[in-house]
Design goal:
The structure holds 2 protein chains of 2 kinds.
Chain A (H helix, E strand, L loop, with lengths): L1 H18 L4 H20 L13 H27 L8 E5 L6 H13 L3 E6 L4 E5 L2 H5 L5 H11 L2
Antiparallel strand pairs in A: 1-3, 2-3
Chain B lengths: L2 H27 L3 H27 L3 H31 L15
Helix pairs in contact in B: 1-2, 2-3
The chains are: A mainly alpha, B mainly alpha.
Chain lengths: 158, 108
Amino acid sequence: MFRIVSLVAALSVFWILMSGFFTPFLLAAGLGSALCVAWLAHRMDVIDREGHPFHLTWSAVSYWPWLIREILKSALDVARIVLDPRLPVSPTVVRFSPRQKTTVGLVTHANSITLTPGTLSIEVGHDHFTVHALTREAAAAVASSEMDRRVERFEGSA
Amino acid sequence: MSLALEVLSWALIVAGGAFCVIGGIGLLRLKGFYTRTHAASVIDSAGAGLLLAGLMLQAGWTLTCVKLAVIGVLIFFASPTATHALANAALVRGLRPDADPEGEPSKR
């Protein structure tokens, strides 16, 4: 029940932010649309821990700033490689077992790897990830990384 | 808008634009599908992110700023998913990722 209420609230806020109109009719239309969507989602049985991971809001707020810093750092690394006249790339494939157990945790980890320039998750399973890296150094830093630990904490705080 | 905000905003926009250009150069210079994907991910992670951050500072505390943030969150979730789908499709199709860095990747 709490999950449905939070979904309706989130969708209504989203409507208001997107429309920018505050007439009673449009606000009511927004609330009505939010209720419709929540009802359909409830009937489809997708308002669960995976479909609406509301409980992860606070851990996401603490994880994302770290991830953004990592993205900028590795974007600079890749930019330096691309602009280097010698083009020092050493494409490497690495397989490893992630620590996460939940689907949301695994997806977050795989997405974080892909978001970070220089590393790319090309195959994702429950017990192994296959990651393509632009350099040997980047590949070495992927397995049992700080990202792995942080995502584990991120899903663990659920 | 204060001068400091203006300077910061334009610094972010210029940095984002620079990352987009560098990503484009990388797409041209690197060889092979998987390595080129790395260059593309510079564009949609760092390039688009910094551009949006700079534009949000330009917009100030308005609904436009919120909309830019929503676009950022959308890219944040959709772009790695699309990149992974592309790379995984290539892998399943038989494009070997362990090709040598000099030439074109070998096909199985």
